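Recap from last week: sequence in, structure out.
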Amino acid sequence: MNANKSLPALVTACLLIGASSAPAAIEVSWDVSSTSVVNASKPGNPPTPAPHGLWTNNFINGSGYQNYFDIQAGTKLVQNLTAGTATLIGTAVNLDGLSATIDLVLSGFADTISPSDYKAGGGPYDGATQDFYSTVTGTITIGNPFGPVDILSVAGTTYFQLGPGANDKDLQFGASTWVIPEDPADSTKKLNHWDLNLALTRTRIPPSSFEPVPEPAGLLVWSLLTTAGAAFARPRAKR
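Predicted structure tokens:
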């Protein structure tokens, strides 16, 4: 075999194999719960205060306690640090037992934003310890008789914000966002903004080194390139 002629083809094959092997995603996973803040109470003796996790403004029977939903166990926020995206998936329940299924995608990651766009009801803005996403889309499905509500965007110039005090309610580590829902009765209209105010507990931590473990295809590329280098370095017979 002529090593000089075969080397370019072998290198090209190696590059194609390497290109087909995407780097492993680096993820951080969070358990999600409601903040410590309670709001409008359900009448009773004594009245029952409503936890503040998801707030649907005046969507259900005006602006009363029915619009406050408590985030349930199993709700997860997962950040994909490689792609700069995240997902928020889980459930919440109000004091009447009405459930809400949350299925949101976050994108447009930013390390810092203008402090004027930060919601500071919890702790102060700190770009060194907080993360931000400019886009929130997906659905929040409210139980019968309401159904799915499409989430179109964040409200105004706000962001989905995450970090110490970022839940906009207290100093806990958490997250918050104001979102704009589409009117399920008329897709040309928008509802008043809804809120998510969340406490977060980290459940999966990325490796200390952000270098992913080589995948099988990556190992194959390394093996082929090593073989090619050996062939190229082998002395040629004199003619």
